[in-house]
Amino acid sequence: MDDFVRTKLLEWGLSEWVEKFKDKEIDADSLYDLDDQEIDHVITKAGPRVKFKKNLRLLKCKQEQEAADLAQVFPSTSDTGKRKSDLQSDPSRLQSPAKRQRLSVSGFVESIILSDAKSIMTFVHARLHHQDQLCAFLKKKISDLETDKRELVGVFGKTGAGKSSLINAIIEEKNLLPSGSINACTSVMIKLEANTYSSKYEAEIEFITKEEWNDELWSFHQFFCKNGDHETEDNDDYLDAVEKLSAVYGEEWKQKSSENLMESKYFKAIPEFLQSKRKILTCESANELCAKVVKYTRSDSKQGEGNEGKKWFWPLVKCVTVRVPNNPFLQHVTLVDLPGNGDCNKSRDQMWKGILGNCSTVWIVTEINRAASEKEAWEILESVSSLIGNGGKCQQIHFICTKSDLLDDSDDLSSADVHDLITERNVQATDAIKKEFNKQSKIRKHFTDDSFKVFTVSSKEFLKENYLSPEETEIPKLQRFLQDLNDCHSETVNYVTRAHRILSLIQGAISRGVDSKKGEVCEELERNMSLQLDNVRKEMEDTYTAFKKCLDDGVEKSKCSYGEKLKNFLYDGKNGGAFYNLLKCVVENGGIYKPKKGKPINLNMKLASCLIDSIGAEFRKTFPNEVTCGAFNGVIKTFSLDTDSLIEKYKNAELQLRFLKTEVRSETLLSINGLMVKFILISCLSVRKKILRQD
């Protein structure tokens, strides 16, 4: 199932049938060809089936009308030998999108323009009937237009820092994310996006697999069998196991085996978990959605009166995507509420690392009181800096101090005095945090002063305006930041521009003027490409030599230091029992010790630190985070086939050459990450061979 079908089902109020259509692999092409018998088989309930048939009939009528209106604009490829294209006879239809906008669409709303452009490209896609390579290529390019390129903003913060209240205030949805409980904390990753498909509030819940939960249950059982006499509040593994099992099973888990706990009766409320499907919750209001989704996202260590027997499903959840209708701040931005240090569950941890590496901005949220000296906030930033810095997409770090309105002993002060004290403390906090940032040597390896910003915010004052104006709460600054990322105008122009290039290529393909010079054009393109590839190859060889030297030095340092590092990690002031628990945790969790309190300790990173440090500077030079720079000293970014000069020489091939120019640019940028991964693997394999030879 593609995005088109999913969008239509959500628009028609049939979200509960999304998974069924996905299972049946119904895409945009097959949707139009569904007959009554097939629809009856897919949608088994009469009410939704009638609604679907009605909307499908209206959609077909709309497409037929568009086909009639545009028949003169996009001739069938089978007609190209019989008559000249209407596109060629009307040059205004091939003008640049910017020029056409000035001439004819100044009064249109951009959303209408975008909708019309998408309808046109859907129609063009349906007209590409031939099974040749060109049609397959064009279909893929048109399908790629629908890819929603979103900016990711990762949000970190310890429990009680006001992260949920901050997000609610920024997107102006006061009751969307649950907040206020000092005992509860967000336990799973939450992604917030705009709901562009309907006017409903929606939560899409993705579960871990049955196999993963079964493995966890088995591990818990093994732990209890071996440590029955060591059940203390200081044992992190015990507390973690009890918290998860009690959330899902209440007190029943104590009398059951791991096999019994996988019985379907325990998952009646979430059959999607057993079916390996996603659960979709749809609500009319933010309040209603918040009440429904809380059991999937938050752990509550002290379930109060009235919560006895209530089940919490967060241990089974991989990720929750919350979609908010008509929200201008989330149109093309995804806010990701991230747990601080990854997860013991492998699939959750992999998703955590993957999303973190793709964040263009990271928000670190902490209370303003002693923000500069807040140890946990800086530990989080330090622990993730290598993921968001080394080859990641992160351009900015925002250190956000919350609750700026909270002052001690302010009851007897006038409003003006409170205002002055708040603003004065905000300035002091900002200066102190910037000074502390300058002391963070590990973080500053990846980020400069220009990429680090401090905000002092008050979600409460933004809503109530007792002492501060909305602008002074700095919430509007963060809203403007999100709006800049969204940049709806750019999205429309980008789509129309890319669509225009595809239509130009189609027009060029049905034109006969290129045939006589096709061989010459191809020869010159191949010659230019060969020269450019030589430049890339030379730069990569030079960089490989530099990397190899750095890694060789790192290997020698690692050989001299690993014994001492291992000893300090395992034996540092620990008695026999503590040593055993630490070693057991490290073995079970892939080399990582994650205490309930304090930051995790990664033995793998400690042992690899000499290698990482040896290559760090060269890596950042080769793969800089700054968008103005380019990988491999900019040689990939400047890759060009010199199509501009070829356009002057071969006018008949202009449409194809312009398309090729933009394709080379976009594909070159996309290839950088792939090259980076391959390059690192080759370098690491070289080091591994050296270590094996020496051993």
UniProtKB/TrEMBL annotation:
Location of the Dynamin N-terminal domain: 153-384
GO MF, one example: GTPase activity
SUPFAM superfamilies: P-loop containing nucleoside triphosphate hydrolases (SSF52540)
Spans annotated as Disordered: 72-99
Database matches in Gene3D superfamilies: P-loop containing nucleotide triphosphate hydrolases (3.40.50.300), Transcription Factor, Ets-1 (1.10.150.50)
Stated name of the protein: Nuclear GTPase SLIP-GC-like
UniProt source species: Oreochromis niloticus (Nile tilapia)
Organism lineage: Eukaryota, Metazoa, Chordata, Craniata, Vertebrata
